[in-house]
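for the recovery benchmark. tokens below, seq after
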């Protein structure tokens, strides 16, 4: 392990494609045992960063150290200690569920008998033991994703990279994946994930960076980011009629911050109910009112002026 328990260290890390800069000089420290997230909208540069960490795409500039090693020089040694769960499932449809694991194990030189034992354990872990002899094709999206996670664990990696682990899954399948990832974290595996789902980041990540346009715009724990960049509560008001903008002026002084979106107005306040009472006291009659806790979505909106998922 590298000094201070930092497993991944990036300094001024850059990825350019021709004259387009996808990752624009980011600094990152991922510590042993934590779940670390890259949160940002499509195109923020999350996957490009992950591919550099996974040693499949060389950095254009800057420094990157993984477990104290240099991806430019030590790619194979690093990859031997990483597990990778790519954004798109690339399981082998010709093979059974079990064979997808045992065949993958061969790339790491794991003896056949050990590979079979490990495959059985991993299929148990991802709750696919009953499907061991099934082909991959008929599996649901959630099962395929869990199998991809199992495959990423075949070499008993210290770090597991997960690129959008639950994109495209239904809520129940997502929860099952989250639950397994949480279990992995409890076992001491370091998780690095990208996501554009703020609930996923809040559920899983001990710390995260918010990325936008190739840059890191904020970093911290979900709680710390919310405390720093948002208020305790948010009131969402929807006014009937063509424009929310027309009502915004009537809300002056009512909140620490007001965001006017095309379909609603957000009031950032410490006490949502008190703010709602004040809205009514001003004889305003929104078509709907919702009081909720602040989330990472609010952090993102504050930092970039845009919503995370359009
Ligand atoms: N091989 C490539 N050649 C040219 N441009 C690329 C390449 N890979 C990525 N890009 C561009 O770099 C930018 C960042 O892409 P990246 O995939 O890293 O973003 P992301 O945050 O992971 O978003 P997504 O959720 O869509 O994967 C995008 O504008 C993308 O079009």
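predicted aa per position
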């Amino acid at each position: 392990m590298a000094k201070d328990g930092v497993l991944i260290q990036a300094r001024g890390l850059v990825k350019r494609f021709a004259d387009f800069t996808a990752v624009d000089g980011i600094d990152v420290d991922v510590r042993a045992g934590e779940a670390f997230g890259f949160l940002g909208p499509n195109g923020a540069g999350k996957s490009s960063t992950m591919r550099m960490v996974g040693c499949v795409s060389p950095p254009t500039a800057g420094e990157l150290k993984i477990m104290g090693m240099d991806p430019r020089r030590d790619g194979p040694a690093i990859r031997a200690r990483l597990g990778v769960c790519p954004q798109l499932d690339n399981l082998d449809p010709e093979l059974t569920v079990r064979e997808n694991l045992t065949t993958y194990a061969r790339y790491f030189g794991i003896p056949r008998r050990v590979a079979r034992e490990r495959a059985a354990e991993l299929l148990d872990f991802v709750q696919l033991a009953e499907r061991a002899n099934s082909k991959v094709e008929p599996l649901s999206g959630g099962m395929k994703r869990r199998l991809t996670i199992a495959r990423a664990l075949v070499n008993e990696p210290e770090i597991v990279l997960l690129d959008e682990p639950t994109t495209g899954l239904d809520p129940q399948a997502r929860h099952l994946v989250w639950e397994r990832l949480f279990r992995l974290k409890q076992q001491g595996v370091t998780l690095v994930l990208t996501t554009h789902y703020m609930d996923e980041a809040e559920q899983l990540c001990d710390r995260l960076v918010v990325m936008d346009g190739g840059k890191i715009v904020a970093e911290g724990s979900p709680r710390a980011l919310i405390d720093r960049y948002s208020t305790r509560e948010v009131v969402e008001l929807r006014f009937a009629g063509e424009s929310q903008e027309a009502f915004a002026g009537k809300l002056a002084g009512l909140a620490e911050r007001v965001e006017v979106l095309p379909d609603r107005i957000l009031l950032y306040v410490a006490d949502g109910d008190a703010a709602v009472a004040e809205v009514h006291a001003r004889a305003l009659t929104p078509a709907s009112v919702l009081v909720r806790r602040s989330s990472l979505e609010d952090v993102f909106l504050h930092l970039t002026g845009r919503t995370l998922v359009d």
